[in-house]
Structures are given as structure tokens and as C-alpha cells.
Amino acid sequence: MFLDLQTDIILFLQEWSNPFTDAFFNAVSFLGEPEFYILLLGFIYWVYNKRLGEFLALTLGVSISLNNALKEVFMIERPFQAYAEVENMREATATGSAFPSGHAQGSSTVFFGIARFYDRMGLYFGAAILAVLMALSRMFLGVHYLQDVLGGTLVGIVLAFAIYAVYQRLADHPERLHWFYLVVIIVLFPGIFLIEGNDFFRGYGILVGFALAVAIEKRHVRFTLGIPWFKKILRYALGIVFMLLIMVGLGELFERFGFDDGSLGANLLDFVRFFAVAFGGFGLYPPFFKRFRF
User: Fold this and answer.
1) Is 167 a member of any domain?
2) pLDDT value at residue 128
3) Mean pLDDT in the chain?
4) What per-residue confidence (pLDDT) applies to 171?
5) 28 domain-assigned
6) Structural domain containing residue 12
7) What is the pTM of this model?
8) Does residue 211 sit within a domain?
9) Minimal CA–CA distance to 113: which of 59, 64, 154?
10) pLDDT above 80: residue 249
């Protein structure tokens, strides 16, 4: 009965389907996907604020990994799987079980993380608006119930505040911070054997790759942000191309291995792919742009 009532909300939202609303809510949903995170984290870390970029990458990696662990616990069918009248309008992003919503959790982690980092009321308000839009988009697209988006949003906010509290204490002590990274990585490591959700391996790959990259950058590179804006634009554009080439190129290569979706082999290859994206973009790329002074 409870899910029936939530399905009525989804069906009501889908009654408003038209070319504009379809495009709008698909665009909003994109704000909770890996490609967007690459665009955002690249800009923040390479161009805008290294500490904020480090904090967001850490928090996002933990959030994505934890989200899939929770999905494995609850194992709730998605609306379009349980109710034939619900249309799945974003099939590629409707993997794994429904609760909690990975899009709602990841985007809340990022946007409330930014708001907490600067602690400004306007940013909290903006993060709340984006959280509502993300929740509506995932229901409109037929891939989540109300409980899924509310649960994901709440977990994302809690993680943003909790990890910021730790990061703030350790940010000026790199060795302690890197030990914290190592503890988090070790705690999440059993998920490789216990969790079947593909997104866990992506999030864990991002976390491990970025943690290693940041440790190397702080010890051997230490790039600065005090450069002209035209050089920042060049740094950002080339970096995004580099990371997307890694992600797409390895994706095409790994498809040739022929592993079934959801198998351990396919998941481990996705771990390698997203590890390579994070480590390549934040570990291998900074020495390059520092060497050529842009």
C-alpha cells in the first residue's frame, strides 16, 4: 500500500511529460552522474580551490561506495520494475536496487558539501533547491520512489557534514589526513567481495585513485592556482579531455573482455577504469601542466 501511494506520485508527475519537461528533468538527473562529477571536480581542483576539490572527491567517493552498500541491504525494486504503468525514461542510469537513490545522495553530498565548506546561507538554499529538483527528476523519470530520493538526500547531507568535520581537523596535517584516507579505503575494501552493485566499484575506484593522486601531488608537485584565467581555461579544457579519453577509452577496451554486466570481472574492470580516471586526472595531469606552466 505504501509503495502504491508513492507510485501514484510518479504517475502524476509523468502525466506532465512533454519534450520540455523530459529534457529538463533528464538534464537535472545528469547532475548526479559520473560525467558531471568529472567536469565539476576538475574545475574545482585544477582551477578554483584545491582544498574544496580534495574534500569533495573524498566525500563523493565515500558516498557512492556507501550508497551501493545500502542498496545491497535493502534490495527494493525500482518503480518501473514493480509497476508496468510506470515508464522508465532514463534506462541507462537505472541500475541496481532502488533505495537509496544514488543520484539524490551523490548530488546532495556534493552541493551540501560545497555549502558546508563555505558555510553560506545562499549556498545552503541553492543546495536545497537542487536537491528538490533532483528528487523530482528521479521520480519523474520513473526510476525511484519518494522514499528513495528522501533517503538518498538525507544520507548525502549527513555525509557532507560528517566528513567535513573530520576534514577540517586534518586538512592542515597531510600525514594524518592520508592515514584517514587509508582507514576509509580499508573499511570499504570488503565491499569488493560483498557488493554486486557496479556503482560501488566506480565510487571506490574514484576514492582510491584520488587518495593516491593527492598524496603524490602534495609531496612532489604542489601546483598553484595563481595563474591568469586564460591559462586556467586551457588547464581545465585539456584536463577534461584527458580524463574523458581515459574513461571512454578504457570503457571501449574493457568491453572487449566480454564480461557479463554485474559480474565480478566487469565490476573489477570498472574499478580499474575509474581509478585510472581519478589518478590520471589528479595525479598524472598536474605535473604535466606545471611543467608547461599553465
Assistant:
1) yes
2) 97
3) 90
4) 85
5) no
6) 2-16+34-291
7) 0.90
8) yes
9) 59
10) yes
Report the domain count for the chain: 1
pLDDT reading at 1 higher than 70: no
Amino acid, single-letter form, for residue 239: G
In this prediction, residue 41 has a pLDDT band, given cuts at 50, 70 and 90, of: very high
Cell 567536469 -> residue: 39
